[in-house]
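Long-time lurker, first post. I've been practising inverse folding by hand and with some scripts of my own, and I keep getting stuck on stretches where the structure tokens seem ambiguous. Below is the full token string for one chain I'm working on. Before anyone asks, I'm not after the true native sequence, just a reasonable design that respects the backbone. If someone could post their per-position residues I'd love to compare against what I wrote down in my notebook.
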């Protein structure tokens, strides 16, 4: 494999980038980490702002190109490693639903979460990108009622994304622990890649906290 085929993941532990790292593990993709200490503000330094002016992670570099935004990265990586069997091909009937539920995460779930967390009124349902918070959750719950996975009997990267999302949001009490959410989260998060990355994330976060305090 050529050196520029290796993926660089710009990373901070226990952030949205954790989900991207789990995706890479699930895909069996060759990657290396550029780890930053958020407590020290390393993601706000000029070197990283040149990569992503918003200072956000994840971001990946691959073949001399940069990809930011979590869902764009997921789609890109899934198409890059079709042999992993976690991404419906462009001509697969499941491709549309797969993209739908990936984008639903970014376009509806996250905005609703932020408004809920900040106690912000989204305004009339006709002007809100996600309708109402409860409607957004009901819609997601309906999608998870078709089988063990969001595409029914077929696991995909969309499930990895949603497993990570529900793990964090239910842990912090932003998303209610509806039985279907709990069952789905537990099923996805039982995969070995989750335990490996969460364990390493805890190690990195502890090391950064110690160095920052010193």
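-- Answer (accepted) --
I ran through it position by position. Result:
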């Amino acid at each position: 494999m050529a050196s520029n085929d290796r993926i660089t993941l710009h990373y901070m532990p226990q952030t949205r980038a954790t989900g991207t790292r789990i995706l890479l593990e699930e895909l069996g993709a060759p990657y290396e980490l550029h780890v930053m200490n958020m407590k020290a503000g390393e993601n706000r330094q000029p070197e990283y702002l040149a990569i992503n002016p918003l200072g956000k992670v994840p971001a990946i570099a691959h073949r001399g190109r940069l990809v930011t935004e979590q869902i764009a990265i997921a789609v890109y990586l899934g198409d890059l490693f079709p042999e992993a069997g976690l991404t419906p091909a462009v001509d697969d009937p499941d491709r549309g639903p797969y993209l739908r539920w990936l984008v639903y995460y970014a376009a509806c779930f996250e905005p609703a979460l932020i408004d809920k967390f900040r106690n912000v009124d989204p305004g009339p349902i006709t002007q809100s990108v996600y309708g109402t918070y409860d409607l957004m959750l009901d819609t997601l719950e309906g999608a998870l009622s078709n089988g063990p996975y969001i595409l029914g009997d077929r696991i995909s990267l969309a499930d990895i994304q949603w497993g990570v999302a529900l793990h964090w949001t239910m842990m912090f009490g932003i998303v209610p622990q509806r039985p279907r959410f709990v069952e789905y989260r537990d099923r996805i998060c039982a995969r070995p890649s989750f335990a490996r990355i969460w364990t390493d994330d805890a190690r990195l976060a502890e090391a950064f906290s110690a160095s920052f305090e010193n």
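A couple of notes from the structure itself: The mean pLDDT is 94. The domain at 3-85 is CATH 3.40.30.10 (Glutaredoxin). Happy to go over any region you disagree with.
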